Amino acid sequence: MKSQDETLEEWSRSLLQAYDLEDVQIDVNAILSLAGIAAHSVVRPAAPLTTFIAGLAAGLAAGSGRAPDPAAMAAVMDRARRLAADYDSDATAAGTAAPAAAAESAADASAAKSAGASVE
Fold first, then answer.
1. pLDDT tens-digit profile of 44-74?
2. Which residue range is the domain that position 31 belongs to?
3. How remote is the C-alpha of 41 from its chain's centroid?
């Protein structure tokens, strides 16, 4: 019987092959870590939503030529990880995000832009 890691690696390769992306390298553990942070810091359904949006943002940045694939993915994954970890649903609902979180978000946007990732 295959381990979970082996199954996920095989599944990832199958998906990449299906989309003609065999040469793309992904870090399964980094993606799962991001999903875990989103699930535990926001709400469980935020996990697939967060990873999808992060992947879409990285793909758009790389596809437009603004950043190479690895740089775009690293920038958006780091930003999504910090946003999820700092998420406070009560403050967000009230429209009163913490000043430190707002400042960090601005710094993240600047870093992502310098790496070529779209942050809009």
1. 999 999 999 999 998 888 888 777 778 888 8
2. 4-114
3. 14
pLDDT at 116 over 60: no
| d(C-alpha 86, C-alpha 107), whole Å | 14
Whether residue 120 is contained in a domain is answered as no
Half-sphere exposure (Cβ direction) of 114: Cα atoms closer than 13 Å: 6
Domain count of the chain?
1
Instruction: Convert the chain into a string of H (helix), E (strand) and C (coil).
Output: CCCHHHHHHHHHHHHHHHCCCCCCCCCHHHHHHHHHHHHHHCCCCHHHHHHHHHHHHHHHHHHCCCCCHHHHHHHHHHHHHHHHHCCCHHHHHHCCCCHHHHHHHHHHHHHHHHCCCCCC
Rg (CA), the chain: 16
Distance (Å, whole) CA 49 – CA 80: 11
| Inside any domain, residue 119 | no
